Amino acid sequence: MKKIGLYLMILAPIVGFGQSSNGRIQELWNIIHKQEENAEVKSMLPNVKEVLLLSKKNKDYSSMMKAMFYEAKINILIEEDNKFDVNTVLDLFIAESNKTTGTSKAILDTYIAEIYNMYYTANKYKLRGRTSVEGGAKASIEYWTEEDFKREIDKYYQRGLTIAARDKTAVIGGWADVFYLSASNLTIDWKKFTVYDALRLNYIENLQHNSFNLTDQERKVIKEKREQLQTELLKDVLATGDQAMYVYIEMYLTASNGDSEVIKEKYASLLKDYPKEPFLYEGYAKYLKGIELITFIDKAIQLFPGTKTAENLLAEKKYAEGIRLNYSVNEYVLDEQAIPVSIGHQNTDKVYVKILKNTNASKQVDRFYSFGDKEYYALEKEMPTVTSYELKLGEFKDYEMHRTIAALKPLAAGRYYVVFSSVPFDQIKENASDVQISHINVTPNVIVVNQGKLRAYDRKSGKPLSNTKIHISNESERRDNSNYWETVITTDSNGDATIDVSKLGSYLFMNIKDEKVYYSPYVSRYYNNSANEDEITYKATILTDRAIYRPSQVLYFKSIVGKKTKLSEQVFAKAKVTVVLSDANGNEVSKQELMTNEFGSVNGQFVLPANGRLGNYEIEVKINETNAGWHNVLVEEYKRPKFEVVFDEPKAIYKLNEEVAITGKAKAFLGSNIDNAKVVYRVERQEIWPRWICGPSFPYHYDRSETMTQGETVTDASGNFTVKFTALPKEGSTSTLARTFSYNIYADVIDQNGETHSSTQTVVVGEKNIELAIELPVVTSAKELSNFSVSTKNLNGVDYPSQGELTIYPLIAPTSKRITDKFNLNEGDYQLYNYAEFVALFPNLTYGDEADSDKWKEGASVFNTSFDTAKNSKITYEGAKDLPSGNYMIKGYVLENGVKNEVEKKIVFRNEELKEVSTVLVELKTKQKTYQAGDKATIEVRSAEDNTYVYVEVQANGKILTKKVMKVGKKGSNLDISIKQDYKKVTVSALALKHNIAAQDGHEVALKGEESKLQLVIESFRDKVEPGAKEKWSLKVKGQGKEQVIAELLATMYDESLDQFTPHNLDLGLKEPKYYYELPTITKYDFSTLNGTGYFRSLVNQQYDRSMAFAIDRPMVLNTYGFNIFGGYGVLYGSSARMKGQAVMMEGDANKVFVAAPTVSKKEDIREDVPMAGAPEMENSKGDIQAVGSESKAETNNVTPVRKNLRETAFFYPTLKTDENGDVKFEFTMPEALTKWKFMAVAHTKNLEQAYAEKSIVTQKELMVIPNLPRFLREGDKLTLSTKVVNLSDVTRKGKATLQLHNAYSNELLVEKVVDFLVNKDESSAVNWDIEVPTGVEVVSCRVVAVSDNYSDGEESVVPVLSNRILVTETMPIYVKEGQNKQFTFKDYEKNSSNTLQNHKLTLELTTNPIWNAVFALPYLQESVYDSSEQVFGRVFANAVATKILNDNPKIKTVFDQWNVKGEVASKLEQNQELKNILLAETPWAREAANEVEQMKRMAVLFDLNTMQNELSNSLNKLTDLQNADGGFSWFKGGKSDIYMTQSIVEGFGTLRRMGVLDNILPINSGYKTMLNQAIEYMDQVQYNSFVEQAKFGEKGKVTSIGTHYLYTRSFFIGEYGINEKYSPMITAIRKSIESEKPSNNLYQDAMRAVIAKRFGVQKTADNIVKGLLETAVQSDEMGMYWKNNTAGWLWYQAPVETQVAIIEAANEVDQEKYSNAIEQMKVWLLKNKQTTGWASTKSTTKAVYALLNTGKSWMDTEKGIEVKVGGYPINTTETAQMGSGYIKQNWSKAEMTAKKGVVELTKTSPGIAYGAMYWQYFENLDAINAAETGIKMNKKLYVKANTDKGQVLREITKETPVKVGDVVTVRLEINVDRDMDYVHLKDMRASGFEPTNVLSGYRWKGEFGYYEETRDASTNFFISRLRKGSYVFEYDLRANVSGNFSNGITTMQSMYAPELSAHSEGVRVEIKN
Question: Could you tell me the pTM of the whole model?
C-alpha cells in the first residue's frame, strides 16, 4: 500500500493525567520515550511489544491503546507494505474491539473511526475520481470509495457513542493520556469530563469539519444530528454544576462555526449570563477593536485585578494603544516640488522625517539592512543629512489605523534615503521606536525601455531628450574582470536609442550621463529587430479530404503555398516543396517531393500505416527544410455512427420549484427518424454561486453536482423525446444576490438495433430568469449611442421577448477636470489638506475620489425610453449628437412577472460630432469614415494642455510607416496618411508623457472592407440521392462585376457522420489575418518607473507583546500518539490489411484484428484495404488521384443489389480549373453507404483570393437495412445480430430479411437465416438473428438483405473473426544477493492441469551484474541553447565525474566498445520485444527509447580525454562568465545572485574535490579556484547577514534546511578556503544547533548533518545521526535498504535517488567499516530502482553511479560469482553471457519444457545482486486463463453503471441485474505496484458485444495517475509513463452494443522497462441481454 507524506512523527513524551499502576509498564514507557527522542525507532519495538503484552495482562487499556499505536507507527515505517499497512492496523484495532467491552470498547471504536478518517483525508483527492459501488466495495481499504468511508466512519463513531452512553460515570481522568488537553492553561478540572462527553465532542467536531461530498439530504441530516448532539452535550455539562466547564464548551462550539459576528453575539450573551468567568472576557476581547476594546478591557481589569486574565488583557490593551506606522512613496519623483507620501498611522498624529543624501558610488538601490538601532546610526553616519522635520497628521482617538496623503518637502535632483520615525530622532530607543527607511530618486528625466530600444524624456514637459548620452553598464559598480562592460549611446531626435543586441538578456544599469539617478530594467534577449520587416515568409495551407482516418486508409491532401511580405501576398508557383507525414510519435512515415503549379498548389496521397500508435498524425510542408505549414489529422480505430442525438434550445423561462420539460430528437444521418428507441436519462443539479443577473460578468463558483431525477422514456414516431423534472433549488443556500442553478440533462438513446448515442443539455434556472444586456462599448461614440441595441435573453442565452425601460444619467465629477494620476498611492480614509491646498502641492495627483466615477453623483436624466424586444430591440436616441462628452450611467430594467430585473452600465462617451476641448493628455480624433485605396486619412492629434509633446507612430500591416514627435495643444494638429491598395490594417498610436504621467491613445483607421472578389456558386446539385447513383454537378466561380476569374478549385465530399468525432471544414484563410500583425511599439515600453512605489524596511523594529495566553481550543483531543497513515512473439494490435495467402496468423493471436478481402476470381481484383464492419473505406487509387470517385464494380449475380461500396470519402478532386466562363463541371458515382455527406469546395486565385461553398447531401432509399454489427467476432461466441429495417415509402411494408455469413476468402456460405418483418410507413423495425460464431474462419462477409415486393435493400461488409486462444506470457521474477542461495518455483507452470493449454516456450533471462545498466546511464551532457548556471555547472560536474569514472575503470571502455560492435547498446524499452505485450513502435515511448540510446552512445565522447579537457575548459570559462560581481550565481546571466544556486555549485565543486576530480581532471588553467573563492565569500556573507538578523529576534543559531546545506557545503572547504574569524560565532552556533537537533524527518538534511558533524570532528554525533537514519529504514530481501518517506516532491531535497546517495555517502564517510553491510544494502536499492525507472541524464545520475562504484565493495566484476540451476541442471553463465553485465538468455522449446524446469536455483558468492525472470509462454482459451501476478497485482471486475436518485453507482452484474444492450459497463481495476515504475503498459481486451465510449486517443488524468489512452477495435491500451509505488483504482466505461454470450478476454499489465514485472486477470465470459 502506498504511504503518502510523513510516516513517523517523533513526539516528545506526552504527560497524561495519571501514571500506570504497573511499575514495569511505566519504566518501559520511560525507556521508549527516551528512545523516541533519539529516533531509535527499531530499538523501541521490543519494548513496545512488552508493554503491549503487560498492558493486556494487567487490563491497563489506556497503556494498551498507546502501545498499539506505537507498534503501528513503528511497523508502518520500517516494514514492507505487504507485511504491515493500514489494513493491518485496522485489523488489530477491530480484533481488540471485538474482545473488549464497556468504555474501552467505545474508545477503540472511536479510534477505528479516526484511523478510517485519517486515511480518507489523506487520499480523498484520489477517492473523488471513483464511482460508488452499490452495496460497498468488498476489497481492502485502498480500493474503497468515498461512500465506503462515509459509511464505516459514521458506523464506528456512532457505535462508540452508543457504548459510551451506557456508562456516563466514566471520566477521562481515568484514561491516562488517551485524552490530552490543549486548554491546560485554564483552571477547569477536565479530568471530571466524562468519556461519553469527550467522544460526543469528538464526533461533533467530525460532523462539523468532514470533507465528504454530501447531498442536500445528507447535509440536512448531519446538521440536525450535530445540533442535537451539541444541545444534549451542553445540557449534560450544565447539569454537572461546573459553570466554567459549561461556558468553555459553549464558547468552543460557537467558535467552531467560524462566523465572527455570530461568535461575538453569542459571547456577549454568555457574558450577561455568566459575568464571573474570566476567560469569557478574554475570548470576547478577540472580537473587539478600537474604543470598544479599550473600554471593555478597562472594565474587565477592574473585575479581575491581579489575575492572569487581567495580565493578558493589559497586554492586548498595550498593543491596541501602541503607535503603528506604514508608508508608501514613489521610487522616482520630480525635483523641486512637493513629494507625496501615503502614510498609515495609529495612535499618533505626527511623524518625524529625515532626508539623507545617498553618496554611495554603487548604482544598486536595494541595499540590504538588518534590524537594530546600530544599523540606523551607521547609515546616518555614512550618509549626510539634507533636512529633518516633523509632519503633522490628523488627530484620532479611536485606536484604529488611518491613512492619508502628506507632503514631503521638495528636493533637488539626486538620490536620497527617506527616514521616518515615530519619535524625534534624538529619542530613538532600541525596540521601543518605529524607524523605517526607503530609497527615492529625484529627477526631472526618465528612461523607458522596450526590449532592445530605449527612450529618454523630460518628466515634466514630456519633451523627448534628443541627442542625449545614455550611460549603460551590466553591473552596479565598475569591475576589473572580463564580465564587466559599459557603453554610452546617444538618443536621436525622437529621444530614441537602440541597445546593442549582444548586451541583451540581463539586468542593465543605465543613467543619463552626468546624472546620478539610475535605472535597472531587465532587457529581454528576445528582441525582434524591425530591420527584418520586409523579409519574405511562406505560408502553406493544407487541406485534407477529412479530419479522421482509420489505419491503412488513404489520406488525400492538397496544399496551397503563399509567399508573403508585409505589404503583399501571392501564390508561390513553380517551386519545390517537401510534404512530410509524421506519426503520433513524431516519426516520419513518408514524404513526397513535389512542385507547385501555377496556382501555388500541390496535391497527393499517403497510405496510412497499418500499425503504430494511434492519435495525432501531422502533415508538414517544408520549403528548403524550413516549415511553411502543418496540419494535424486523427488516426483512430473508430466505428461510423448511424445517428445523432440533439437537444432543442431551452427557449422558455423556467422557474425554481416548477416543472421543466426539455425536448430532444434522435435523427439518423440518412434522414430517417429514430423511432421507438429507448431513452435513459438523468438530471443533475449544480449550483452557480452566485449568478450576477443583469450585471457585468462575474466569476461563477460551481458547486458539486447532485442527481435530481433519473428515468427512461422512448422516442416517438418522429424521433422526439421529452425529459421532465422539477427545478428544485438547493436547500439551505441563501444569498443577497439571485441564486442560480444549472440542471445538466444526460440522455442515452438506444436504437432498436442496439446502437447507442448520447447528448447533454444544460438548463439554467434561477430566482431571476431574464437578463437585459445593453449592447454598447465602454467607450461609446455619438453614432453608436444614437442607435444601439438591447437584448433580453433567458438564463440559457436564448432570446426572450420582454418589456422594460432605459434611462441615461450624466455622472458629475466633484471637481474640475485635471490631468491626474494616483501614482499607485493609497489616498486613505481622510484628507490632510483641503482641495485648494492639495492641488497647490500636487497639481497632478488625484484628490480623494475625484477620478473614481463609481463614486460620482448622478445628474438629471438626459434620456428615457421604454422598449419591447418582441417588437424592436433597437434604441434610438436622436439627442446623442448634441450630448457633451463625459461619463454616463445607463440604468435599465426588464420586467419579470411584474418585478424589475435591473441593470447598470457605465460608459465613457466621446462625441466626435462636437467641437469640444480635449480633457485628456493625448487624444486621437477622426471622423467616422471608411477609407479606401487612394484616399488620404486625416487624424487629429490633440491634448487638454498646450505644448504637449506626442510621439506618434503609424503602422500599415504591422510595418512602421511614420514615427515622429508632434507638439500639440488644445486646437490639435493633423496627421495625414495615404491609403494604399495593399493596406489591410492601418493603426495610429500616440504617446504623451507630461507631469510624470504617461498617456496613450490608439486608433485603427477604418478601411473599406475587403470585399471578396470571388463567389463560389453551386449551380447544379441534389441534396438527396440514392446510393450508387451517377451524379454530374457544376460550380461557378464569379468575380466582381463582369471580371473574368481564372481559379483553381478543390472539390471533395465525405461522410459527415465523422464530424461526431472531430469536425472538419476547408474554409481556411489563405492570407494572414490582420490581427497577426505586430502591435505598435509604443505599447511595449515599460513606464512603471513613473508610478512604482518603494519598499520601506523597518530598521529599528518596535516589538509589541501581543501574545495572549488564551485561545479557544478544543478542550481535549483523542490521542493518536503521532500515528499517521502517510507512513515470445509480441501480440500485435491494430487493423492491418491482409490479403489471402499473406502471413498466416499465429494460432492464438486473438487480439490482432485483421481486415481481409472477400474471395474473388482474379488476383488483380483483390482490394488492398477492405474495411471492417462499421468502418468502410474507399479503394486505394493506383492511378491519377482524381480517379477517386470512380464507379465501383456492379453486382451481377444477385437479384437484390447489395451495397458494398461503403467508403467514407466520395471523391477528392484537388485541381479542377475554371473555364473561360468561370465554370467547373465534374462527375462521380455516389458511394453506397446510407448517411449524410458533406460536400466542400474551395476556389483560389493566384493572388490568394478565395471562396468557399459547403452543402449536405443524404443518400437514402425507400426501403433500407441498417445493420449494427460488432467491430469483430470471436470464435465460440453466441450473439444476436440485429438490423433495423427503415420504411420511407408511403405504405406499410412487410417482407423477409436475410442474414448470410460467408467465408470472406473462399466465399463458402457459413450461416443463412431468414426472418419476417413488418414496418409501418415512415417508421422502422428491428429484426434479429441468433448465431454462434464459427471456428476456423479468419474473416466473414456479413450480408443483410431485406425484400418487400419490388422494394429491397442489402448491405455487405466484412467482419474479422478472432481466435478464442491467445498467447499468454507469465513471469516469475528471480533475484539473489551476495551470500544467498535462493530457490524459486514457478507454481502455475509446475502445477498446470489445463486440458486446453498448449506450451509454447520457456525463457530464462538473468542479469548477473546489473550495475552495468547504471554505468551506461552515465551522462555526457551537451551544450544547450540558453545556458543557466545550473545547466553549465551540471555539464562540468557530469562530464568531469564521468571522465574520472572511466579513467579509474578502464574495463568500461572495453565493455562499451563490445556492446557497440554487437549492437547491444539499446534502451531497456527496446529489449525483449517478444516478451512484451506490445511493440515499442505502438507506444508513446519510442522517442524516449531513442533518447536513451543516443545518451548511451554519446558516452563515446567521454573516452576522448583531449576532447573532454577542451570541453571542460570551455564550460568552466562559461561558468566564470556567469558569476556575478558579488561572487554569487544567478539562475541566468545578469540576474540577481541566488544563495541556493551558489551553494549548489560550490557543493558540486566540493564533491568533485572529494572525488579527486578537481586537480586531476579539471584543466589547471581554468581559473576555477578564483571563482570558487569568490563564491565561498559570497556564501559566507549572505549566511552571516541572515545569522545576524536572526539574532535580533532571539533565533540565534536556528538552522533552516538551506542553513544546513550551507554548512554542509562549507565543510568541503575548511582548510584551503579557511573561515574568516568574523564568521566563527556563526559557524559555531550553527554547528552546535545541528549537533543538538533531533532527527528532522528530512532524510537528505539528516545525511548532511552527519557529514557536517564528522568533518567538524564530532564523531559521536555523526555516528548517532547515521544510526538514527538506519533505525527508520526498511530492510527488504529483494529491494535492499530504503526509506518509505524517501519520495519525490517539489522541494530541492525531495529527490529519492539523490537522497539515497546522500545517505550512502554519509554512512561511508562516518564509518565505512561499521556500516559496510548497510552500504551494500542501500546500493541494492539503487540498482533495483534503476531496474524499473529511467534515470534522467543529470548530475544526480552521475553521483549515483559514482556511489555504486566507489563506496563499499567493488561490484564491477561480480558477474563471475554466480551459479544458476534450472530444473536441477546448471546453466552456463559465461559462454553466451554479455560482457560486463553477464546478461544471459536461454530458451526451451515446447518439446523441452518439463515440470522440473519450473524450479530455478540461484547461488551468489560475489558482491552485489543479480536479477531476472523466468518467462512461460503458452496458448490457452481466453475463458480458461487464470490470473497471475508479480510485483504488479491486479483485480478486474465489470459493473453496470446505474443511475440512481443518489447519483451514478456501480452495480454488480448478477442474474437479477444483468447487462442489457445500451447499458454503460464500467471496467474497474484494482491495481497494486510494490515499487516505482516507469513506462507501464495496461491493455484491456473486451467482448465483441461491447463498444468503447471513447474513441479518440490522448493524454488523460483520472485523479490517481496520468496516462495515454488508445482505443483499438478489440482492446484499449493505457500507457502510464510513471506509476509510483502504491494502490490504485482505475475505471473506464464501455457500452453494451450487442446481446449474446461473449468471451471478454483478459487484462494485462506490464512494466516495459522490466517485463518480468507483469500481471494479468483471469479470462471471463460476459452475457448481454436484449
Answer: 0.85
